[in-house]
Amino acid sequence: MNGKILRVGLAIGGGTGPELAEIFERTLRELAAREKMRAEIIRSPREYRTYRPMAALTSAEAARATEEDAADYIRFVRELAADGIRVAFRTAFNAQSLYLVRDELLGVKVEPMQHSDGELLLIRDETQGFYSGRNDQPADPLRIRRETLFSRENTWRVLDFSIENAAARWGGREHIDRIIVACKFHLLENRFAQWVRDYERERSVRIHLYQPDTTNRQLMRGAFDGRTVLVGSNEWGDIMHAELIARFGLGHQEERCARNFFLHPDIAGFVEYQTVHGSADDIAGRGIVNPVATLRAAARVIEEFTGSPRIVDAMEEALGAVARENIATPDAGGSSTNEVVDAVLTAIMNPNGRTLRTTRADRFRKNFRARHARQLVARCLARNGQTRRIYTNDREWNRGAAHAARTKQKKRPRWLVATRLAGRAILRCFAASRRGCFCKIRVRSFSQSAV
């Protein structure tokens, strides 16, 4: 290795989180080793709660647990940033805790989506809106009052980030065809619309402000060709995210990862990778969780934060090869998590590009041929008055020799000896059986005086 170290934070929720964390660690380390570097992973000591255990608590207990998990994760991210670490991977945990984190650290979720007519850069505004609010406390069992906040400062901050991110991705602002903001601004009197118009004048850009339903109609009829920046409120983006993935033919939501950027000045530039799917508590510990999103996240972390080229492409090629061999988890018609992970990493790390299932199949065929050859050779040697025992490796041979030594036999027994005739018999047997491949079978030659 060249001594380069990639440092990555890791936060783990309950449910299938521990399983996915192990997969992420293994994948990150193996991909880093492939690029001649070392991965150092800093784990949060806390396992964050998912929704299922939260549902068993009282309202007051759930509110307190939510605040505790959010506060701990915010502290963990701030510590990583202070230590110079710029990226973390997180498995799923309770949504309300995450919304409090994004509210505090000013998060935005970025999802580029390529389609036949161009590319859509979806920016989900997590800094404000319905998802960023807090419920009233103490809780009233008959009513829920939720307070949320919109601000001109956050609106401008998100728009600045969105345009800068798109310009960096597409090679300059001149390559952005349109900027759209999807928000239920009619509920916000005229203030939100005024903030957007002020931003247009201040930054000299053109922004189309649409209601969510108008945006949906335009998306469904394919009106946004070229390169489009789409900034949406998080509650709208949460609903449309899966629909857009399906519409653009980008696979299944459960197999995708996403990036959250935190815009708070104290940690600006910090990136959090996550799986798009949830914690799947109902299948925890059964070894059947779909690992594809986690594998993709590890590849993206390596490529983005080390500058190593084509890691993401190599991962996609490996995933495609594994899918073509029908290696999958039960949700996709397969068997287990480990089989998918082993196959994908084998396909990436093996220079011949052979997957685990191919290797296993070859091993099965080889062992079958070896057994078949032993039977043929034994029959051939029997006809020629020679030994009936063929050893396939040194361990079997040594075990037979040790048996002869223990029994203090002066001569090697005939079943321990294979003559040169055995080697010729193997070749003849293979030619006759037309197996097409020679299996390694251990043959020892002795002079006739040794018998």
Descriptive account of the structure:
The two termini are 54 Å apart. The protein has helices spanning 17-34, 51-55, 59-82, 95-105, 152-170, 191-203, 212-220, 234-247, 292-306, 311-324, 337-349, 356-383, 394-406, 420-433; strands spanning 5-13, 38-48, 87-90, 107-115, 118-125, 134-135, 146-147, 178-182, 208-210, 226-233, 257-262, 270-275. Helix 3 crosses helix 4, helix 9 (292-306) packs antiparallel against helix 10 (311-324) and helix 12 crosses helix 14 (420-433). Helices cover 47% and strands 16% of the residues. The protein has three domains: 1-106 and 264-354, Isopropylmalate Dehydrogenase (3-Layer(aba) Sandwich), CATH 3.40.718; 109-262, Isopropylmalate Dehydrogenase; 358-450, no CATH class. With 451 residues, it is of the alpha/beta class. The model is unreliable at 386-397 and 410-451 (pLDDT under 50). Helix 6 links the parallel strand 8 (178-182) and strand 9. It has a ten-stranded mixed β-sheet, sandwiched between helices. Strands 6-7 form a two-stranded antiparallel ribbon. The protein is globular, with a radius of gyration of 31 Å. The longest helix has 28 residues, at 356-383.
